Amino acid sequence: MKISVLGLGIIGSAWARNLISDGHAVRCWNRTPKDFPNFHASIQEAVEGAEVIFIVVSDPPAVQSVLDKIKPMLGSGVLVIQSSTISAKWTLLFAEQVQSTGALFLEAPFTGSKLAAEKRQTVYYLGGEPAVVEKARPILEPLSGAIIHIGPLGSASSLKLAMNLNIAGVTHALCESLALCRAAGIPDEVYFNALARNVSRSGVSDLKEGKLRQRDYAPQFSLKNMEKDLRLALDTAADLSVSLELTERLKKIYDQGMSAGWADDDFIVLMRLLDKKTGEHG
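Above: the chain sequence. Below: its structure as tokens.
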């Protein structure tokens, strides 16, 4: 198929390479020019003749910027798959803009880091009409470990934000737990050996153990993106009159990390705040 991938970040670039490997005619675009296969500096050239358009950018303003540029080129037969993590409110707004051109819109936020994307293990949360989901399935299945149709438009975005605030909370609890043991003189090896036999062991602890032990903050998922997701989750909670007190507190800690200049590091970089307080270095 003729597919456009708009946004060549950590995930978008992995999907684009896999789509190319699958034999699709893929055109790519990124706001910042990149040395990448089939890259087009013009977004209009990148979407010309596309049957499927992936949008994988950072936040609602970035999605709106993309749509402003490509809407004149949309029409019947085009499927827009919006995979940026945004809120239900923004999803419905963008869906209306796309559908007004006659094109189809599917919200497809996902879970899975760089490694999952590269290994075709992305888990997609889909929101939209069943017929649109089925149209997208042959394209998404080769990229994914699972596809879950959450419900109507907006539902997948809300679920994705809920999942990410959970990940952020569990990860920070892991970091505080590790900081306590480091301050008590307990080696990381002993800590993680004990954690492996404790009910609190998690997918997050398995994923981040090596990075925490090595103080490796190269991004699998950046601090700025998780901060954005916490902000959107709090906005959504306010719209729904739900109180998220722990998330509000965690957002303030993320603000400290952003102010420290760690926006592009992995979100576990907040361990630096805890190591500093306990006299550790790294």
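The first helix runs from residue 10 to 21.
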